[in-house]
Amino acid sequence: MIEVLAGILGVALTSAVLPLFQDELRAWIPFASRRLIRLAARGIPAAHRNRYAEEWSAELRAFDDRKLTAFAWAVRVLLRSLRMRAALQEPDRPAESKAPPQVVLSAAEHVTAPMPPYLADLLERTRRFTWAEVVRDMDDPTIERVEADLAVIEQRFEALITKGRRHCRLSTSPKGTPRKRYAGSKESIHD
Amino acid sequence: MTIQTLAILSVMVDSPSDDWYGLELARRADLKSGTIYPALARLEQAGWLSSHWEALDPSLAGRPRRRLYRLTPDGAIRARHALADAHQRIGRSRITAPWLNPGEQPT
């Protein structure tokens, strides 16, 4: 009896919470994208900062309702912002594939972010603890790998949200923990 | 010159008098959007490209103005040379690759 009541309560709560969660996510992603763009602009020389902040903001708007795609785009812009800085400080070398110069960042310009697990080795080896420093030293294959991961994350989120909108059904796990499971997907979000 | 830069130039050389914004250029060059700005910045710094703000009133258009890129006359010439050089080098490397010669196996 208690389990049934807990199940009903869980269903009622999740059906109330899920739309709120989706609304929060929809509201948060554009905010995060704009924040990433501002962060990327901070990483380039001051003389170019306003121009690129405006340029990237305009590009961001072009994504319209594709909020997750816009978010992934903003992450890519951030990942490349230190190369951007090197490019803007190195005016005469568009045709050469030489490595960007070492960039000394002030503490205020360092960006801290959770590190993907596969970067742990690189982090340990370099003994550097900021995202900006690790990104600066990334070679192209590594950046490509990060971008590939982002694309997968993007696709997963979009699939989850699409399924969540149309086919979300609620279930109760054997342990009685309410959880949301998406039809046709092995992925679930535990409350 | 990187493949990415060559891809950007090849799109722009096809329509040297057209204006392009970053996202559209990335789409046409089949590059991941968000990654082309360093290449565009390098090309602009070197005088191969020029850029200007889109001429529109954001309040009337309902969106912010975009930054548009165009090949400079000098940049168009240099881009054509760079692309021709790249094609030549790719062709040469294929021809001289030992495993392409009959009877030889790759090591």
Task: Describe the protein.
The complex is a heterodimer of chains A (191) and B (107). With 191 residues, chain A is mostly helical. Chain A is built from seven helices and three strands. In chain A, strand 2 and strand 3 (188-190) form a beta hairpin. The longest helix of chain A has 41 residues, at 2-42. In chain A, 19% of the residues are buried. The model of chain A is unreliable at 94-115, 125-131, 167-174 and 178-191 (pLDDT under 50). Chain B is mainly α. In chain B, 52% of the residues lie in helices and 9% in strands. Chain B is built from five helices and two strands. Chain B has helices at 3-14, 22-28, 37-45, 58-61, 73-96, and strands spanning 49-53, 67-71. A two-stranded antiparallel sheet of chain B has the order 1-2. The A-B interface holds A 48, 51-52, 54-59, 61-62, 72-77, 79-80, 83-84, 86-88, 90-97, 147 and B 1-2, 5, 21-23, 32-35, 37-39, 41-43, 45-46, 48, 63-67, 82.
Q: Which chain pair shows the most residues in contact?
A: A-B, 33 and 25 residues
Relative helix content of chain B = 40-55%
Poorly predicted spans of chain A = 94-115, 125-131, 167-174, 178-191
Find the count of extended strands of chain B (DSSP E, 2+ residues): 2
Decide which structural class fits the backbone of chain A.
mainly alpha
As a whole number of angstroms, the C-alpha radius of gyration of chain A is: 21 Å
Biggest sheet of chain B, strands in spatial order?
Answer: 1-2
Query: How are strands sequenced across the largest beta sheet of chain A?
Result: 1-2-3
How would you state the average pLDDT of chain B, rounded? 81
Strand proportion of chain A: 5-15%
The gross shape of chain B turns out to be elongated
